[in-house]
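One record is kept unedited as follows:
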Amino acid sequence: MIVYPSKSSLKINFVYLSLSRKKPERQLDDEHLDYLLSEKILLNWAGHPMKERVSMFSLKFPDKIISETALRNLYLKNGVRRKQIHIEKRRTPF
């Protein structure tokens, strides 16, 4: 008797194999992570949306690719806040 795998198990195996192999241009080294998380770069990129930040990263490192979602997840994982300016209101005496 021949037992064929179900379609759902084939789909799960295919998804697992496709997710487990990252393309070399998408794997970021410590150099790239340090660049993306450096204080100087974060200040320079402060007014730019994620799409522009991704394009500026690819201009700096043409052999590497990062998506907007991956950059956002990197920021969230390392505690980078979108706005780190705290405004204090002072009362003026009458």
About this structure: The chain has five helices and no strands. The chain has a mean pLDDT of 77. Residues 7-20 form the longest helix (14 residues). The radius of gyration is 21 Å.
